[in-house]
Amino acid sequence: MKIYTKTGDKGQTQIYADKMVRMEKSADVLECYGTLDELNAHIGLLLSENSDPIILSQQSLLLDIQKNLFQIGFAISATSSMDQNAVSELELRIDELQASLPAQTHFLLPGGHKTAAQTHVCRTVARRAERRLVALISDYPVPESCLSYVNRLSDYFFILARKINIHHQVKETTV
């Protein structure tokens, strides 16, 4: 089977919902899918930092996050197995990481260690994905758990970036 079908050459594609739907590639739902995919790719890049002990300790969760991003995409167009338990698990992991960090008293600039900087990229793409999901609410059945999950993801990546910088003894730049 060839990877290209030529069916999208005129600016349309199809999504698979309860039935196949053909639409313009500029549709909001495709922008949302693309942003979720972009976030997934950035997480894949983050996972490639497999010599970083903090990333290694988070590897299982990061893989689960990648799978959950696919579930969010499924939820928009059809059905999903993602529920509030995924949000609760993410909150638990955020709380665990945050408990090991010094109190934050200022705004922080993204950056620091290379792995932390990539984590901040994941955070900002997660925020964009959340905005894209919110934009779909009036036209697509976006489950509340999916929106909550993506909202928590930006928090998770922020705390993870702080943990990475502190582990590598990179001073956080405050504003």
Structure characterization notes:
- The protein is mainly alpha-helical and 175 residues long.
- The chain has a single domain (25-167), classed as Hypothetical Protein Ta1238, Chain: A, CATH 1.20.1200.
- The chain contains 5 helices and 2 strands, in the order ββααααα.
- A hairpin with a 3-residue loop joins β1 and β2.
- It is elongated.
Question: Gist?
Answer:
The chain has five helices and two strands; from the N terminus they run ββααααα. The protein is mainly α and about 180 residues long.
Q: pLDDT below 50 for ≥5 consecutive residues: which ranges?
A: none
Terminus-to-terminus distance: 53 Å
Please estimate the helix content. Answer: 55-70%
Q: Strand order of the main beta sheet, please?
A: 1-2
Under CATH, the topology can be stated as: Hypothetical Protein Ta1238, Chain: A
Q: What's the pLDDT, averaged over the residues?
A: 89
The total domain count is 1
What's the count of strands? 2
Instruction: Name the overall outline.
Output: elongated
Which band does the percent of strand residues land in? Answer: 5-15%
The CATH class label is: Mainly Alpha
What order do the helices and strands follow? EEHHHHH
